[in-house]
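note to self: dont lose this again. the chain is below, predicted strucutre after it. 172 aa total, dont forget to put it in the shared folder this time
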Amino acid sequence: MDEPNETTEQTPDDVFLTAVLFESSLGLAAFFLGWALGPDPRDLIPELNLEDKWPIISGVLYGCLAAVPVLLLIEGVRRLPWEPVRELERLTDDSLIKTLLKLRPGELVVISVCAGIGEELLFRGWMLPWLAGSPGGDPTQFEFALALVGSSVAFGLMHPITKLYVVLAALM
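---
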C-alpha cells in the first residue's frame, strides 16, 4: 500500500488564492462581529471625497513616514546576535516562503492590500473599540490602553510563525 505524501507543496496560485481569501475573510469577520456584537467597524471608515485629495495624499505620506521607525527597528533586531532572530532569518528556507517569493509583484500587492484592510478592520476597526467599550460610550484612557494592548496581543497571536515573530507583530 502506498504511503500518503505528507508534504504536498502548494503552487503559487494556491498560496495566492488562500492568502487573499483568508485575509479578506478577516474583514468579513469584523463586519459580522460588528453586526452581532457591535460596534460596527464601518463607523470608523472615513468618508472618501475624491475632490479633496489632500486627506488621501497626507494619509499616504503619514503612512510612509510611520513606516520609517518600524523599518529601522526591524533592521536593528536583525543585527542582534540572538538565536530567535537567526530562526526568523532561516524562514527563507521554508517551502511556503519560497512559494510566496515566486509570486509576481502585483500578486504580492493584492495580498498586502487584502491583509491590510482585513486585519485593520478586525483588530482596529472592531476588536479595539469592542474591548474598549464602556457603558457611557467614550472609553477612559486606561480602558483604551487596555483595549490597545489586548487587540495588539490578539494580532500577534494571529502570526504564529515563531515566538519572536508573535512578539514583534504585537509590538508593531
